[in-house]
Amino acid sequence: MNEHRAMPELKEIVGALLFAARQPLGVKRMRRVLRETAEVQGGVYAQYAEATERDLAGAVESFVRDLEAAGLGLRVAEVAHGFRIENRPECGPWIRQMLDRNRTPKLTKPALETLAIIAYRQPCTRAEVESVRGVSADQMIRNLVELQLVKATGRSELPGRPWLFGTTQKFLEHFGLKTLGDLPNMEELRRAEREARERKPQEPSGGAEDGGADEASRPAESEPAGEQHDTGPVARED
């Protein structure tokens, strides 16, 4: 007697995709995967290609309910325009111990200030960041680009065509944000601006630059940029 393998429910496929995905996965991408699989596999797989984005959103909700009911220490979070499986915060201490996350280089306060300015004002130039902080931001921005939290988004129309910078997908993932609209209110930026103004007498523009991260995370410094030219990005995300 031939045994027929039962085909999985849509929520099972969604759960498997979320488990395997290396980045947050949205319903549009899920639908594309279902269609591509149907084209390659054919047969019974074609039925899944008919799933709509609403069907997939419902499957995600169903999977979330099942996961919560199972009490497995995992949850589905909606971040960076998609979904991802992650551990529940209550289980974090054990995971950090296992991964030795406490030794991971952390952003310094000046780096967080620079990142906040770029996040709220993007796209913005290096000069705009420096006008707020009152200190050179060249190496700071390089460090944030190296950490893939900031990227070059294009060129400004200002004289000299300086680079414009904005935040990345990894920025959203790192801070657990669905979109930039989920950023906290402007108070953080105002506080950064206020603190920068208070420091200006002690830290005149063009002086020594703050470090962006622990030494282990810093890229090697390049030659200082000329006064008439803005510094290009170290790396750029697509």
Automatic annotation (TrEMBL):
One of its GO terms (biological process) is chromosome separation. Gene3D superfamilies: Winged helix-like DNA-binding domain superfamily/Winged helix DNA-binding domain. Residues 187-202, 215-238 have a biased composition (Basic and acidic residues). It comes from the Bacteria. Keywords: Cell cycle, Cell division, Chromosome partition, Cytoplasm. Residues 186-238 are annotated as: Disordered. InterPro entries: ScpB_csome_segregation, WH-like_DNA-bd_sf, WH_DNA-bd_sf. This is Segregation and condensation protein B. It comes from Kiritimatiella glycovorans. The lineage of its organism: Bacteria, Pseudomonadati, Kiritimatiellota, Kiritimatiellia, Kiritimatiellales.
